[in-house]
Amino acid sequence: MKKFKLLLLSIVAFGFITSCEDAYKIVQDGELNDDVAVQSVDDMQAYLNGVYTHISTGSEIAFTAIFTDECGTGAGSGGQNFDTHRFQLTAANGYAEGMWYGHYEAINRANRLLRAAAIIVPAPEEEAAYNSIVAQARAIRAFCHFELLSYFSTDMKDDNALGVILMDRVPGTLEDLPRSTNGEVYALINSDLDFAAANLADDLTYKFMTKNLVNAIRARMNLYRGNYALAQQYAQDVIDNSGLSLAPATPVAAPAPTNPNYSIVVASNPLTAGSPTAAWNTAFYGAATTNPYRKMFADLNQGEIIFALDRPATGGWENIAGNFSTNTTNVSGSPFFEVGRNLFNAFRAVPGDVRRYANVDNTSKINQNYDTDPNYISSDILIIDKYPGKGSQPLRNDLKVYRLSEMYMILAECYARSGNLNGATASTAWAVKKIRDARNFLGAQPLPVYADATEALKDVLLERRKEFSFEGHRYVDLRRLGVELNVSIDRNATDDEVAGLPTTLSNTDYRFTMPIPTAEINANGVIQQNPGYSNSN
Fold first, then answer.
1. Which of 104, 264, 451, 515 is least surrounded by CB atoms within 10 angstroms?
2. How far apart are CA 353 and CA 359, in angstroms?
3. Rounded mean pLDDT of 466-492?
4. pLDDT grade for 181, boundaries at 50, 70 and 90
């Protein structure tokens, strides 16, 4: 796609436009300008539907998985994104561009809707709908600004640190905008979220901006900022008032696997000792799966999802699993990235952990001697199956952006910060056990006991690694907690097809902040690059 400056992303699309070209073309062929097309509340709703189609966290999910320790190179790899996987992060990185331009495109569309709405006078019977549409547009703007801060801010906890471009209006096509401070961007986000909380309709579903989502964003944002009391307050509000429950690991078809060391597939025999039966595989992995946790990721029910980006089976939508596999999410689908070996080992360390099965396809080839086998690339194939596909699209699923389990993980971290480490209620141990109980089909798990806050936070980070794998959390978790906990990227030596390559980065490395894209640097005379990156690549 051609590289144009940020301010030329002033698209005036009306409805559902998904071509690459509309990321830079000011007016599409045969298209109406927003001040002409949006003249009523019905027009506002139609335009808003189009805004939703341009929100994506796909770049965050793919970059995080490939850059950190969630992925190893796959048996079907042709070298795709090896630069990112091998820590070669520059201002020309496609994922950085995808995040930056994708979110600013959505912000720009939301701002155009808000500008058009400002001159519309709704009838009395339309006021609630009008206010909810405006609230959704402002919530989208807040959501996208926060996503940008999470990756491009130099220090999310410092209000005076360099943030991102603050876009609270439709800019002029020749206008250069600088980066604002975190504090300035957070102020806009909070203002937008406050308005949204007061005006969003109560009947919106989880694929739209809702009041529960507003509080979930507030919880995550305050956690990242280090405002732990507020993060705990908002996370608890979501838990208490969303009406959601953690998706359980049961029921699963009997007999369920109990041996943590069993191989899903060893050579051509899937029914080795300790492995699930063919009936269990069908009941768990099939289109008619009986497992609630699997159903949630297969888009067969809402489960515990607070907010998901809808990706219908038909139409020209992104295929999120296409970042990892060529055709399908099974061993014959020519995978170019697979589950990282240390992540897989973390899954299988606990018998009955449903996340192992939901993340790793049952056609995977598991070599117990992977660490000594020189042919590990072809003998140890761990297929990523977080996104098993839907309908006629085997690589496509909704993007799960906020789930209830994150609210419990936020509570766990906040309790650790306040010294409430242990105990059967209102503690880090309680919140971690809550997740582990829900995720295990063999029954309740032990209540952890922590010696100190560092031990507790490391356990929270481990649980987050397993719980949110391939959902776009790991990179931000490492960049905000790595130095404090003395942890970083944790790859196995077999996660690359070339032996001896680096398996980690220093947790102080500049690459734990994303680069401002080269196209933006070249076109915007007042933009500032993040430390460590060259402006020329």
1. 451
2. 11
3. 98
4. very high
Name the β-bridge partners of 308.
400
Q: Give per-residue pLDDT as tens, 226-284.
A: 999 999 999 999 999 999 999 999 998 766 665 544 444 333 333 333 445 667 777 88
**What average pLDDT does range 332-357 have in this prediction?**
95
Q: ∠ CA 112-113-118 to the nearest 5 degrees?
A: 100
- Of 191, 148, 193, which is closest to residue 6 (Cα–Cα)? 148
Q: Which two tokens stand for residue 303?
A: 């489960």
* 526/101 Cα distance (integer angstroms): 17
Q: Could you write out the DSSP letters of every residue in 363-413?
A: T-B--TTTTT-TTHHHH-B--B-SS--BTTBTT---EEEEEHHHHHHHHHH
User: Radius of gyration (Cα) for the chain, nearest Å?
Assistant: 23
Is the bond preceding residue 251 a cis peptide, omega within 30 degrees?
yes
Which residue do the tokens 């909380």 mark?
197
What is the H or E stretch that residue 71 is in?
strand 71-73
Residue 266 confidence (pLDDT): 34
For residue 143, how far is the Cα from the chain centroid? 12
Give the H/E segment covering residue 337: strand 337-339
What's the start-to-end Cα distance of the chain, in Å?
17
Written as six digits, the tokens of 489 are 């990227």
| Residue 16: both structure tokens together | 């559902």
Q: What CA–CA distance (Å, rounded) separates 41 from 51?
A: 15
